Amino acid sequence: MKKRIFTIGAAILVTASTATVIWGHSARQARESVVQKNTADWIVAGAGRVEPESEDIKLGAELSGKLKSVYVEEGDRVKQGQLLAELENADYHAQVASAQAEVHETEAQLRKVVNGARREERREALSTVEQARAVMNNSESEMLRRQKLYEAGVISREEAEQYAKEYDVAKAKFQEVSEHHKLVDETAREEDRDIATANLLAARARLEQAQAMLAKTFVRSPIEGTVLRKHHRLGESVSNGSTVPDPIVTIGATERLRVRVDVDEADVSKLTVGQKAYVTADAYGDKRFRGHIVRIGQELGRKNVRTDEPTERVDMKILETMIELDGGDELPIGLRVNTFIVPKS
Questions:
Q1: Residue of 15, 47, 83, 114 lying closest to 249 (CA atoms)
Q2: Model's pTM, two decimal places?
């Protein structure tokens, strides 16, 4: 009886040991399977932020001044070259009008130099010469006649000298109008044309400068995209400073979205352009937005995206990596996401 009980107990013990070994082996296999599955799903993880394909483009005025109008609102679609905002520019319009008038004046002066005097002016100058010649000839005849009368003792010496003076005056007048006629009738000198041409070029340069200054009062879109943020409104003053940017609007090309990811320096060797990835966001639960790496940074730097976790390290070195999403149009610009880069295989 005791032998039978011992035999049954030993059998039970062997059975329990076998079951324990089998269960332990199965549990270990299950855990390893879960680990392998999780590690095979992604190899690099990091925090990221959603951006437009063009990145954020902050547009401001090239001049400081007061806004005359802002023509767009947040969410508006804009075309390349579309007018977004305008500064008060009445004084710049006046400068352009003044420069245009100066160009017209110098153009007329150049034409006058090149073409010379008109036919009417030449005929008038020639008529003046003929008239002066007639007066001179008449004065000469009177002078000669008075000299003969003086020699005959008919008139006094003073009277003869008076007619001689009148002849000298008439002769000088004739020479003066003759020189004027030559000046009017001759073609322009080369140096006169060069001076007139230089004056015209300078006037045109001043016009281009005035037009360039006027153009700086208009803010236009460099791309086709969407207005993401409107920073200023009608009547507000804006400044043009290189140290303190003062954008009027922020736009971006949102047809395709990208995610800028901070990858830890220890994982940079695992990255290649074209590698698959996906992102998740707390607001969208377990939904995955898939994409691929389109750009890998060339220089390590500090973290750009903060997760607000108390244990987060902010002094770590990261490499900026850009992932282009295949979809995810509903993701808002600036949303913080969790990014996972899958193995190359």
A1: 83
A2: 0.60
Query: Looking at this protein, which amino acid is placed at residue 57?
Result: I
Non-local (6+) Cβ contacts of 78 within 8 A are 72, 84, 221, 224, 225, 226, 227, 251
Residues 44 and 326: beta-carbon distance below 8 Å: no
Element containing residue 257 per DSSP (H, E): strand 257-264
Q: Using an 8 Å Cβ cutoff, are 236 and 268 in contact?
A: no
Q: Residue 205: phi, psi to the nearest 5?
A: -65, -40
44-53+256-341: which CATH architecture? Answer: Beta Barrel (2.40)
Q: Which two tokens stand for residue 190?
A: 């080369």
* Extents of the domains making up the chain: 44-53+256-341, 57-89+216-250, 98-208
Architecture of domain 57-89+216-250: Beta Barrel (2.40)
| Residue 225: strand, helix, or coil | strand
Cα angle 142, 146, 151; round to 5: 155
Quick one: DSSP state of residue 316?
-
Q: Residue 294: what are its φ and ψ, rounded to 5°? A: -115, -15
- Per residue in 108-159, pLDDT tens? 888 777 665 566 666 777 778 788 888 888 888 888 888 888 888 878 888 8
* Interacting residues of 339 by C-beta distance below 8 A, sequence separation 6+: 45, 46, 47, 48, 259, 261, 277, 278, 279, 323
Residue 16 corresponds to which tokens in the numbers above? Answer: 């329990």
The rounded radius of gyration (Å) of the Cα atoms in the chain is: 48
Q: What are phi and psi of 67, to 5 degrees?
A: -75, 125
